[in-house]
UniProtKB/TrEMBL annotation:
Keywords: Fatty acid biosynthesis, Fatty acid metabolism, Lipid biosynthesis, Lipid metabolism, NADP, Oxidoreductase, Peroxisome, Phosphoprotein. The lineage of its organism: Eukaryota, Metazoa, Ecdysozoa, Arthropoda, Crustacea. This is Peroxisomal trans-2-enoyl-CoA reductase. It is found in: Peroxisome. Pathway: Lipid metabolism. Gene3D superfamilies: NAD(P)-binding Rossmann-like Domain. Interacts with PEX5, probably required to target it into peroxisomes.
Amino acid sequence: MSIFNPVLFKGKVALVTGGATGIGRAITQELLTLGCTVVIASRKEDRLREAVQELCPNGSQLRAKVCNIRKEDQVKNLVVSTLRELGRIDHLVNNGGGQFPSPVAHMNLKGWNAVVETNLTGTFLMCKEVYDQWMKDNGGVIVNIIADMFRGLPMMAHTGAARAGVDNLTKSLAVEWAADGVRINCVAPGSSIYSPTAAANYGDDSIFERGRAGIPAKRLGTPQEVASAVCFLLSPGASYISGETLKVDGGGSLYSYLMFEIPEHKKLPAYTWTYKPPEDDDEEPPKSKL
Ligand code: ADE
């Protein structure tokens, strides 16, 4: 069940990276419900096959394509073959991404680069290719899925930095591509959106329960609630919104959703100094150099 008009996206084509699992799968499902034809892209063929089987067993409204968004030639082929088969790309949802939890102290350059290449460079490649091959001449709408990294993202610094990059890229493209009829926005799911894929990524379910206490909504969020925000931004209802980022977090970013517990320590003592007044009180105070 969707809250939107069931023919909202009839006749439209959407390309959703990472569309087979977690939040991406909920987005795919919502788009299908609203009449859209959807192409999901992922590196993993088995995930794609399973998603098609579950979401659209006859396969007519849902296509699956293997693509590593880090590879420019694969991204090109994905867009070429989508346009050859379906003739248009109205919507691009850049949801494909990945990271591993780690403090920066234990990250190496290879791990850092892998996460930045997937989340930032992969999104850049997808936007650029869809724009070059279709949206430059036909317009369209792009939604980039980022994360609630606005106050830093301890234990996930690589993806926080990459997603902040996507947030800023989105604003630049909203200006550069407006004259071509392209709108582009971000959706930032809070860390409190629960999906089995996210839980597997953290390797720990309890992290979600710990954070729940500080969320004004007093509950975890669902991938479907992220999908609603994405479909709103893709829809004509958002026709005057571009370069914006919509948080879907139950108000958690306003208050205190703490994923990372700061250990007790005394390593940042206050700076202590004592002021000694001059012995002769009539003495002129030194003039500030500023
Ligand atoms: N999802 C996570 N990593 C991905 C990648 N490199 N390509 C496509 N989808 C992905």
